[in-house]
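Continuing from yesterday's entry. The apo prediction looked reasonable, so today I'm repeating it with NAP included to see how the binding region is handled. Same sequence as before; SMILES copied from the compound registry.
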Amino acid sequence: MRLLVTGAGGQLGHDLVDALSGRVPLGGLRGNRATARLGERVPKEVIGADHSRLDVTDRDAVVAAIDGLRPDVVAHCAAWTAVDACEGDPDRAFATNALGTRNVAEAARRFGAHVVYVSTDYVFDGKADRPYKEWDEPCPMSVYGHSKLAGETELDPGSTIVRTSWVCGAHGSNMVRTVLRLASAKGALKFVDDQVGSPTFTADLAGVISTLCTEHLPGTFHVTNQGTTSWYGFAGAVLAAAGDDPSRVEPISTAQLDPPRPAPRPANSVLDNAVLRLHGMPLLPDWHEGLERLVKVLAESTQSP
Ligand SMILES: NC(=O)c1ccc[n+]([C@@H]2O[C@H](COP(=O)([O-])OP(=O)(O)OC[C@H]3O[C@@H](n4cnc5c(N)ncnc54)[C@H](OP(=O)(O)O)[C@@H]3O)[C@@H](O)[C@H]2O)c1
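Holo prediction written out below.
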């Protein structure tokens, strides 16, 4: 089986190339329950294409790449993920996240590849008082959320959509790295306590996406680490995992953010992993576990010469 991963230079793309290639991503679990499935025994050739190798906004380049490589599966991780910057440049957001996905879907259709598209909790408005199921009606609030939902609509019905949330990995910028950087300066840290979600670690997520790629399971899947917290709770847990004092973090409301963020965020980002659960497939571990592992590998990488 040959697999092409777009956006392979990003935090998820990097770990997905590792997981598909049979390597344990940095901060991942050896013998991950979630990856111990049938498709894992299929020999795989994995091609990771980062932004410089394949720009998904370039239709001709996408068609030529998929024609030349003839992958069985395209795992489409490439996206413009700068949520606030997307508000100021909707054309770039839609060119990358929506049209880029149309290009991938068109080329995959032409050459018979299965598409696995990574989407987001931001397709919901966060107003529900319960976790969102795969069958809930999306209603994005931000340009980023609209552009990612537009990407979902470009896919053929047999494709796979993986919606995830609050993504953190060893290769890229994310909330864990931000908190550790801010914590290296003195003083209090302020994070909002009125937005809740499930932090999700690419080293864990990549295992499930790897299974969905190899088994070509169609439809929408919500895939997150289990458990929920606010950004305030998450920041405190990052400090605790790093051996720092979690009480350095102070809770504020979204309305108190100064300056306010350009993009509105869902207050409730919690995704019920209903389809995985109903299929009887293993769920990802609790987010605290993934966080402990990520903080450990980040600490080790700063200590090594
Ligand atoms: N981060 C989150 O919290 C989060 C939450 C839910 C869902 N997701 C989704 O998860 C997926 C992976 O996200 P991530 O956290 O790994 O993001 P990431 O680290 O920003 O990775 C995205 C990658 O896509 C690349 N890219 C941007 N424009 C491109 C283009 N036109 N053509 C090809 N590649 C392009 C970026 O390269 P450059 O940096 O070189 O431009 C980057 O390496 C995305 O689909 C994202 O929408 C992310």
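Comparison notes:
- The mean pLDDT is 94.
- The first helix runs from residue 11 to 20.
Will overlay with the apo model tomorrow.
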